[in-house]
Amino acid sequence: MRNPQLNGHGELQHLLSLDGLPKSVLTAILDTAEPFTEVAEREVKKLPLLRGKSVFNVFFENSTRTRTTFEIAAKRLSADVINLNVATSSTKKGETLLDTVDNLCAMQADMFVVRHESSGAPYLIADHLHNTARHHIHVVNAGDGRHAHPTQGLLDMFTIRHYKKEFHNLVVAIVGDVLHSRVARSQIAALTTLGVPEVRVIAPKTLLPTDVERMGVRVFHDMQAGLKDVDVVMMLRLQNERMNGALLPSPQEFFKVWGLTAEKLAEARADAIVMHPGPMNRGVEIDSAVADGGQAVILPQVTFGIAVRMAVMSMLAGS
Amino acid sequence: MRIRIANGRLIDPANQLDATSDLYIADGLITGVGKAPEGFAADRTIDAAGLVVCPGLVDLAARLREPGFEYRATLESEMEAAMAGGVTSLAIPPDTDPVLDEPGLVEMLCYRAKKLNRAHVYPVGALTIGLKGERLSEMAELVEAGCVAFSQANTPIIDNIVLMRAMQYAATFGFRVWMQPVAPFLARGGVAHDGEVAARLGLAGIPTAAETIGLYTHIELARITGAKLHVTRLSSAEGLKMIKWARKEGVDITCDVSINHLHLSEMDIGYFNPNCHLVPPLRTQRDREALRQGLVDGEINALCSNHTPVDDDAKQCPFAEAEPGATGLELLLPLTLKWAQETRTPLVKALACVTSDSARIIGSQKGGHLSVNARADVCIFDPEAYVTVSRARLRSQGKNTPFLGLELPGEVRYTLVEGQVMFAPT
User: Fold this and answer.
1) Which of B200, B204, B272 sits opposite A124 (nearest CB)?
2) CA atoms within 13 A on the CB side of B79
C-alpha cells in the first residue's frame, strides 16, 4: 500500500497523520521548527519561503485557534492566505467535498489546510489529487474527526523536547477523553515513534477506544496511580456534549476523579510539565491553580505551534 | 434448441459428481448426463475440454437496485453482470425504494426480470411494512406474488415484540425468515469493527457484541416461535460459535457469509478505503479465519456476493459518509475458487456453497443442480485462467469493490439459462 504522505523520494508530500511517519521525518520537522521560533522575535517577522504561494485554509468544521495559527504561520512565510469557512458555505448547498477541492484547485491553490468533521477526509483529498496528477498541491490535516491532528501532535513534541531535551527517558501521561480525541491519537503516534518508553493513558473505560493498548500505551483508570512519577502530563479537552449522558454522569464527577488538581499533580515528578491543547475547561479537566501554575506550559505550546506549522508548510513546499 | 456440452469436467455437488462427462440439454432442461438421450441430435455443441461445467450459481443476496435506485444500477446492467459471473439465480433483498412490501411491486419486479430473460429472481419480501419494524407485511400475499422468504435487509427491528410477532406469523405458514442479527443500539452510528483499526483511525465502532446479542435474540425467538431462521452475512467467530450452540439446542437455523468477509478483515481498510465500508463491518483476521473454516466445515451453509452496487458519488466521500456496500456478482465464482484453493477444499464441495446449498436455502428445487429434468442453468468456466478485477471489466454499474486490481482465479466462458446461451466469448 502506497503511503500517501510521502513522495517517491521519501519526502513529505502531505501531512495527514503522524501514524505511519518515520522518526526521521518527525525529527526533521522539529529541527526545522527550531530557528522559526526566533522569527517571531525579529522586527520583521517574515521569511520569503512561501512567497507567491497560495495557502487555502479550508475549514469544514469551525475553528478559530487552529485556523489563526495556520494563517499566521503561512503569512510569516510570505504566502497568500485564503480562509474559507466551508462549514457555512458550499457544502450547505450540497456541493461534494471533491467538487469543492476541484474548484479551489482551479483557483491555483498550492496548499490546502483542511479541517473536517469526518475521520479520513484529508486522505480522500490527497488521494484525489494523486489520481488527478496534481502532485504540486499539498494537503495539511488540521484535524479530521477523531482521527488525527498532526500539527498539534508535533507542537506538543516540540514543547516536550524544548523542556525535557530528550524523549528516550520520559514517562508521559495523556489524561481524559482519548476516545473522541484526534489530538490524543496524534500524540500517541508521535510519542511512540520518537521513542518515549512509557506512554500512559488515564481515563474512565467509557472514554477509551477498544484495544487502545494496541497503540502501545499503558492504560490507567486511577489518576493518582497513572500520574505517579510522570515527566509530562498532557490533558485533553472534554467536549460539552459528552459531559452528561451515557459516557459520564456529570462534569463535577469527572473533575473529582480525573480533573488535574495540584494535589494529584503532586504524584508526578517535581519537574513535570503540564500541557493542554486548548481550549481549556477550567474546573472540568483542569483546575485553574494548575492551569496558571508554574508547571503549565500551555501558552508556550501555542507559540511553538506557529513555528511548527511554519516548518511543516516550508518542508511541504520544498518537496 | 438442443445443446451438447462436450468433454467438460462436470461438477454437480448435489449429485456428488466430479468427472469428465458430456451434458445434454433440450427444451430448457437437462436431458442427459454422460449419456445422450435416445435420438438426441445436438443443434449446437460447446467444447468444454479443460473447462469446468457446473450448475449456474445461486446467489443469496444481490441488490439489483430497482425500483428506486436506478442511478446506481438497473435490472439490465446487473443481469448482464450476473450472466458474466455465471450466476443464474438471484435472491433479491427487500431494501429497494419503495421496499418490497407490496405484492404488486414484487410482481412487477418478477415480470421485469422475466422479460429480460436472464437470471431467475427470487425476491425476499420485507418482514415489516417499509422495513420500519412496526407492522407486519402481507406475507401470504407476498409469497403468492413470488417472495421466497422475509427479511429486514440491513434494518434491524428495534422492538422485540414486533420481531417475535413477525417470526410467529411467518412460522404460521412455515415461511423462512432471513435476518441479519444486530442489536440496533450497539451498532448505531458505527461504521467499522470496534477494534484496533477503528481505534487507530478514529472511526466509530460496531462491537462484535452487536452481532452476538442480536443473534442470541433471534435464536431465542426462533426457538420460541418455531420460525425457520436463516442468518445472513455472519461476520464474527463469536457469532459462528453461537450458531453451533443453537444447532446443538435443536434450533432450525442456517447461515451464510459474504465473499467480502471470507477474504477481508478490518486491516484492509488501510488508509480509509471507502470500498471496505461494508455492512456488517469487516472484523478481525481471527474472525475471518473462523468464517473460512466454518464454511469448510459446513457450519456456514452458503456463500453469497452481497452484491450492492453503489455509485461513485456515494463512495467518493470520507469513510464514514461513504455509502456502504460493494459490487460482487462477478466476483462470487472467482472468490469461491480462491477460498477453495487457499483452504484446499475440493471443488465439488466449494461449489456446493454457491449452487446446491444456496438453492436449498431459497427453497428452489429446479436450480442449483444438474440432474436429468432439472432446469438447464449452467456455468462453464476455466479454472486455470486468472483475471484482474478492473472497473473496465466489471459489467455491473457498481464499480466499487475492495478487490479492484487483484488477480483472481476462474474465468466464466459460458452461462446458460434454461438451455439458452446467455453469455459466451465474443
Assistant:
1) B272
2) 19
